[in-house]
Amino acid sequence: xxxxxxxxxxVADPYPAYAQLRAAGRAHWYEPTRQWLIPHYEDVSALLxxxxxxxxxxxxxxxxxxxxxxxxxxxxxFHTLNDHGLLDLEGADHTxxxxxVSKAFTPRTVERLAPTVWRLAGELVGGLVADSGxxxxxxxxxxxPVAVIAEMLGVPEDDEERARLRPWSAxxxxxxxxxxxxxxxxxxxxxxxxxxxxxxxxxARRRKDPGEDLISGLLGVAESAExxxxxxxxxxxxxxxxxxxxxxxxxxxxxGWWAMLSRGVRPDAAPDALSTxxxxxxxxxxxxxxxxxxxxxxxELGGVVIPRGAEVALLFGSANRDPARFGPNADRxxxxxxxxxHISFGAGIHYCLGAPLARLELTAVLGKLLGHAPGxxxxxxxxxxxxxxxxxxxELLVEx
Length: 400
Description:
The protein has one domain (8-399): CATH 1.10.630.10. The protein has helices at 8-12, 15-24, 41-49, 63-66, 76-83, 91-104, 107-130, 136-141, 143-153, 165-173, 182-208, 214-222, 231-263, 271-284, 316-319, 323-326, 355-372, and strands at residues 28-30, 35-38, 53-54, 133-135, 290-295, 299-301, 304-306, 311-315, 377-378, 397-399. The chain is of the alpha+beta class. It is globular. The protein is built from 17 helices and 10 strands.
């Protein structure tokens, strides 16, 4: 099977194509997207840490200097939102904002949320069990991270916008697929404007009446002596936490349960076993299949020179199945895999700030379903979403 991110057959199972790419070399030019595909674990891991690459290039070059067109002016609200977030910042701005955000987004924050996460997971699983099954995606996987992020940001339960967090996130994340359509861009622009307007109003409320939430914490950091966190940076940070945390957690949950249910395997319910299983599910069917980087200075891989101005596509899904790192059984789901340095959360300066929260949510859902629905089984063959970069299902129908 050839690498073809628009083919339903490829999207359903890209892993044979990844194996072909790994066997054929370390870097492959892909003309349809004008990117260099990087399929090997060692290279992907190293390039994530290599400062000759970046998520953006505007901290060093103008668009003209880099040989790239400026973004479409009609998409400006999306780019303003996206370009001020940690995921797409480099250099001094990234260092400054990550340091400041880390002061508010601490292990203690996640620890404080743990009882809420486990309670919500239990309630959602309880509802699914009471109805003898249903759509695991809509009933459990989606509501949990949205509710947790809303709690974390301090979105009041009675705010009507709370129900719009999920569609806002989905519309914005559509822009991360390869060659998004103009209609996708229009939806992303609209969601960027609406979400930003809501957060601006919520920030104003928290400035007058601070609480224990993340926005209040960010305000405290921004207004401290070492602040320098602008309102736009706060807004972009909050949106990134929703988008990255939500999309990854939802899809990791459903991808993982499909993998287990379709193979008839379950992990042990002990805490250590749950943690090990979560990492294996993240590795086995990675929710983010590709992560892109701009080449800021020439690099060389396996005798191939990739020049400044090029874009590399780091194939997380391929790297996480590379036998050179995960052994001859890399394509097998092993819920007790002991040595599992997967890169599903990235690496280097862009390592996912929300990784501890994502692991907590995935562990809670896994633990609650194992405890309350031991007989869980598939009710229908699920259909993959058409997107390639963000890998997930339209629904996952189960019976208890």
